[in-house]
Amino acid sequence: MRLVPLAIALVLAACAGSNAVRLVPGKAAPLAEGHVDAWRVDGGQTRLLVQVKRLSEPGALVPGATAWVVWVQGLKADHKPANVGVLRLDAEGGGLLETLTPLADFGLFVTAEASGTATAPRGEAALSTQVHAK
Questions:
Q1: Confidence tier at 123 by pLDDT (50, 70, 90)
Q2: What is the rounded (10 degree) CA torsion for 82, 84, 90, 94?
Q3: Which of 52, 72, 113, 121 has the smallest CB count inside 10 Å?
Q4: Which bin fits 6, alpha (ψ -120 to 50), beta or left (φ > 0)?
């Protein structure tokens, strides 16, 4: 049990230079909430720490859905969404995803998908925001 506070402290320390942005709930999940911490790292990547609360099981929102997928999409009209990972939820609907993207300015959104390996989002976003990493 002592490792959990240590792990949280390490994540928070890593986010010290980050840009925290609130996730906005969509109509499909009005009680969900969360935020994204984003910061540029060596190699031109942006490290993302996505944290959510009060998110129901994906199948409760979309029949047949088994995963909450996090997507990033560049801000230009021709940019397609890219699957950057799956949120794993605890019993209270809280979840965490740490991942990387080459983008610095982008939209980020979470959708309920039939598989964590989905190649294109379907349906409406449960949570979304715009990110401008520093």
A1: confident
A2: -70
A3: 121
A4: alpha
